[in-house]
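Case study 2.
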Amino acid sequence: MAVKQTDATSELPDRETSVAILERMLLIRRFEERAGEMYAKAKIGGFLHLCIGEEATIVGAVNAMRAEDYLMSTYREHGQAIARGTDPNNVMAELFGRVDGVSKGRGGSMHLFDWERRFLGGYGIVGGNLPLATGVALACDYRGTDDAIVCMFGDGASNQGTFGESMNLAALWKLPVVFMVINNQFGMGTSLERHSAVTDLSRKAEGFGVPGSRCDGMDVLDVHRVVGEALRKAREDRQPQLVEAVTYRFRGHSMADPEEYRTKDQVEEWRKRDPILVFKQRMADAGLITDDDYQALDEQAVKRVDAAVEFADNSPFPDLDSLYDDIYVYGDQVKGWYAVDERAPKPHRGEEERDAGDLAHELAEAGAAYAGAEYENDRQRHSGDDTFGTGEPAGETRDEEGGGD
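Prediction:
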């Protein structure tokens, strides 16, 4: 895909602001790299989608938002949480499935959530966050606030039915929402040209009454400028906006991705536009940073991530008694048992787990220990064995979320 690069003539912010931008992008990069390492060591289970290469898109957009604005993302959302201000300790703990994670160890990599910072989560269903964001925008409008919401989604999600439905309602009701499509060129392993008849995704909502604009997703300042203007229009003019950020992910769709759909030369060509190194060079050319300054920032980011890993490792797993906590559909509105625990000789309602008695708890603990031993034995049998030819651990073989990258 031919990408128009920005001419890098936009004026840099002051030194303090520029350093803060670079610092945040570096922290996200080092966090993601370490998350990949921890996944390979089986510290992180389930699915893991890294945003390496997309740091400028994330930081530029989040920096354009107000503290009172809301943010929704996809399952590739570690960077969004960190950019929004969530403590990396709690993000890493969530990836580890620990109780000190932002979702108490229940969500894992794809389902971070931080209400205090109005980060309303990552969503594993492709396009599933679009109607939810429309609802949040309706709430902002209904309550008469000046708040807005930014909803990030992948290029593949622009082909989902929820895309048109959400655009139509947002335009019809004049809602304060910016839909931001992160076009990293591939919906899982399918290139944009093969899955979308319209490859200029900024135009894809025009027929629904939502105007679009495009930014260079590898240039943090261009992203900030375009998203900032889109938010202004959504907030002040009550006209929803679609922003396309043209970017690239340097790693595969997920840690299980063998990346057979693109060449090494293509990846290397995009790496020449590494958003962190490009921004660092612009700062150096303007006399705002030296190589020693950059090295110090990088070391600081690595130490911060080291601390996050240590914190996550020391955080306990959720207690089995909490298995049915926070299930929100309880009571007379649902007939029958919404959740049933069948581990004990006498099945009981899930919400009664804490009162189930010692026998149920002993059986549950024994079952968990047995499953853990089986998992460890299986992992050792396959250690060093690239069972699926993916170059990744055998534990993850497919992505249940579909092609919404």
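Residues 344 and 358 are 10 Å apart (CA to CA).
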